[in-house]
């Protein structure tokens, strides 16, 4: 719930800033109307950056990989004894 409040407050702040720019005429109107497009593009770039950083920092767990391989071997043996074809090794 707190995350939603943060997002909504950020959206309200950006909207207030945009309306303020429209009212004050500091930036030409032709540029001011492009601000939402810039915002969406920037948000997309930020999202891709966060996904990339998350993938780069994805932890590897060698111990868990060994345990998983052991579980797979046990399951293959179990199904071979039951007469199920589990493919080639």
Automatic annotation (TrEMBL):
- Predominant subcellular localization, coarse grouping: endoplasmic reticulum
State the superkingdom.
Eukaryota
- Localisation per UniProt entry: Endoplasmic reticulum membrane
| Keyword Transmembrane helix in record | yes
Q: Which GO terms describe its cellular component?
A: dolichol-phosphate-mannose synthase complex; endoplasmic reticulum membrane
- Pathway this chain belongs to: Protein modification; protein glycosylation
Listed transmembrane segments? 34-55
State the oligomer form and interacting partners.
Component of the dolichol-phosphate mannose (DPM) synthase complex.
What does this gene product do?
Stabilizer subunit of the dolichol-phosphate mannose (DPM) synthase complex; tethers catalytic subunit to the ER.
Instruction: Give the family, as the similarity comment puts it.
Output: Belongs to the DPM3 family.
Q: What name goes with this protein?
A: Dolichol-phosphate mannosyltransferase subunit 3
């Amino acid at each position: 719930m707190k995350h939603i409040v943060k997002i909504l407050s950020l959206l309200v702040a950006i909207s207030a800033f945009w309306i303020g720019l429209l009212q004050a005429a500091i930036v030409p109107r032709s540029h001011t109307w492009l601000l939402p497009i810039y915002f969406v593009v920037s948000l997309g770039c930020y999202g891709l950056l966060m996904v990339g950083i998350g993938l780069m920092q994805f932890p590897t767990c060698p111990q868990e990989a060994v345990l998983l391989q052991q579980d797979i071997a046990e399951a293959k043996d179990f199904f071979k004894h039951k007469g199920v074809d589990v493919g080639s090794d």
